[in-house]
Amino acid sequence: MATRKLSLATIRRTVSALPGVEEGTSYGTPAWRYKGKLLARLHQDGRSVVLKVGNETRDHLLQAGSDTFFITDHYVSYPMVLARVDRLSAVDLKKLLLRAIETTQR
């Protein structure tokens, strides 16, 4: 994954370019849904984004040993991964969001 700090404006532009995705809030932070299902949200730490990528993809990303992806105790039982915005590019974010859309369609 490319190293690049994503601003909230860049995240919003990347997400809004995907058809059918709507912005709202979750836990008081900006969040994006596809057909009413949560895809992603800005984590309350302001330094990471939570992405619904499915358990298999999440496990793969975590096993890669990257400093980009992690989970907190809260997300252990959910098919979600956290990504540090200072280590994620807009291109990589778009790929993960497309995976999130695919995951919500299952």
Overview of this protein structure:
This protein is α+β, with helices and mostly antiparallel strands and 106 residues long. It has one domain: Aspartate Aminotransferase, domain 1. It is 31% helix and 28% strand. The protein contains 3 helices and 6 strands. The protein has helices at residues 8-16, 55-63, 90-104; strands at 21-26, 29-34, 37-42, 48-52, 69-70, 80-84. It has a 6-stranded antiparallel beta sheet with strand order 1-2-3-4-6-5. A hairpin with a 5-residue loop joins strand 3 (37-42) and strand 4 (48-52). The radius of gyration is 12 Å and the shape is globular. The relative contact order is 0.24. The mean pLDDT is 90.
Write the layout of secondary structure elements.
Layout: H1 8-16, E1 21-26, E2 29-34, E3 37-42, E4 48-52, H2 55-63, E5 69-70, E6 80-84, H3 90-104
Antiparallel strand pairs: 1-2, 2-3, 3-4, 4-6, 5-6
